[in-house]
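We modelled the chain as a single entity of 774 amino acids. Its sequence is:
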Amino acid sequence: MKTFYIICLLLACQSIITGLSAQTVSGKLVDEKNEPMPYANVVLLSLPDSAFVSGTISGDDGTFSLSATAQPQIVRISSIGYTTIYRPVNPADMGIIRLTADTHQLGEVTVKADLPKMRLKGDAMVTTVAGSVLEKSGTGNDLLDKIPGISAEEGAVNVFGRGTAEVYINGRKVRSSSELEQLSSDNVKSVEVVRNPGARYDASVKAVVRILTKKAQGEGFGFDNRLVTRNRRTYGWTIYDQFNFNYRKNGFDLSGTLFGGKLRGGNNQQIVIDTYLDKLWQQKMDATYAKTKRSNIEGTLAMSYQFNEKHSMGIRYNIDRYMSTHEDWRYLTQVLCDNQPYENSSSQMIIHNPSTTHNLNYYYNGQAGNWNIDFNADGLWSPTKEIQNTTEIINEHNENHINTLNENNNTLYAAKLVLSHPLWQGNLSFGGEYSHTKRTNLYLNPEGILANDDSEIKEGAASMFADYTHSFGNVSIQAGIRYEHVGFDYYEKGKHIDVQSRKFDNIFPSLNINFPIGKTQVQLSYAGDITRPSYDNLRNSTYYANRYTYQTGNPFLTPTMTQNILLAASYQWLNVSVGYSRVKDDMIQISENYSEENPTISLMKVVNTESYDRMTASLTVAPTIGLWKPQFTAELYKQWFSIETHNGIKSLNNPVGTFVWRNNFSLLAGILLDINAVYTTCGHNQNIYLQKDACNVSLALYKAFFNNRLSMQLQANNLLETDDADALIYSGIRAMSDYITQFRQVTLTLRYKFNAAKNKYKGTGAGQSQKNRI
């Protein structure tokens, strides 16, 4: 303490001598490996009493800024696990500041015990992974599935009440589900969940998951290999292998991934469809055989170079190809007319849908004075083809053959620029993004049952945003605004169709306030978002489902607009949240008469709904009791939604409850045991009624060998086979009951690591919302 006062006195003398005037103090924090240090505490203290003046946290890139006044002041920089640093406010540009590990602090077990597992920080709910049992979850995908409020299955990451989330690893946008599979949970420092993303993100983004990894290992060559084999009853074995390598020397970094596998799936399904046309037509369909087989190969190569602490650039290429794709769907159908037997049929649908996707990204990250620069340019090329052959045998005699060909070609070019600069004791970020998309669609039906289609969509999307963050003592405020312009032109056989070509202009404000009430951290946020119709939903062609049902898109669809408010609070191992949303022009499928000439055929069409409200609430409790680490989460979804049916307006307002109970046990010999259960109740979600409660009980065993170089994980999902899906879907003059039987699934994962190091590629990508629509 005496040393501290001496330092304060010397710094005070220096400040008085230099006659400091009001100025902006800024710098960039890095660790011992020169990696950016995000979320470190930076506090401005007055001298000589060390009273708090203002404070902030460093950004994702390690930068910070504060406004100093004329009185003598110093800056204190601290982060858990690192030695605290004191710096004078003169010079104002502190440049690069390197934090070093505090070996004494890191050696204390109590430091980890004091770290809250969940806490509100900035715009996110932060879950600490390092030093917790979550480190042994397995892959990044397995880890996310254990984070409160997140469900993750085979790369599809969803946040409760918000839907599909964009995922970032150290600020870089995840482009492929295999990236989460190749990430090991023991390399993760923390996971941040943002339910109301600010203006920096595309307005179509409903939620963001940010993964921060630990410090990268040293230089040289490293690799890891992961072999996964999975069996699901009746569907056979899925097997794939993933090889990742990384070479790092000085500022140069080369990394790559090679993935290959044979994937098996299917769907044991019973469907009952009631359609109210000229009469009541009922189809009872039983899937006697429903299997999918796919062979997939994917490769990624990325190169980056860090010239110095302020400048880096890189390029990344990814190819993802599905070959030998084969879907075989066989149904027995009983048709009733006004509850009387009408006909019996058997059908087989064979689908081949090979596809190839190319992704190219270039990025530059730099710093010029107090300006931070983040530039990304992206290209995407994705040709797809679907060949469908359907054979229908009616009453064992009449045989129909329907063949269709659907070819799509997608092209995207996009660029994004983000600039940030310290301003008025806070930080201002602003930038813009532009993307150009072209999609061609060719649909052919040789039998002439359905009309052919030769259409094209060209779309340009431009956006601008500004985002400002400021701290007032313990209160942090983030405010932003985003403008988006989208215009698309629709063509049929090369001819521009004016009535189906439209333009949209939208403004999206956002606000996030984070403040303490005693020892409880509270977050209040607001954001608007948009869901643009997929290009498939905008199609004008009619697809064949069966002889009683056709499907089409709707070029006149308008985007869905949602206004969201979220209130969350966190105290030690307890977290609660309540959210409210107003939804306008949601998109659902409805059924209507296909034509007067064919009164037995219904047409499924995508339309916009009336506006409605919905609310969410969640509670998470995660204490530690000796070797037992339980985590209990209760989630409630409630909507006020109505739909037109054959009997008039029907209200779909029953709530849905989800209860998650996770249990982790540390056993002898370093074995970790997970026993988890997820229970979902009946209720309504949009135009769907969940008719049956579902329960999924899972188990996992994890063991590492040879100083964590080799690990083995055995997982069993849906052990009791009580996770069946039973849904009643309302869609205009049609109601469909869909029952899917879910079988037990067993997965074995072997992973070997040799000097594995995380690559330093920092590209964040551009045109992400357009890629998702493609």
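As a brief sanity check on the tokenised model: Residues 1-21, 103-116 have pLDDT under 50 and may be disordered. The chain is about 5% helix and 65% strand.
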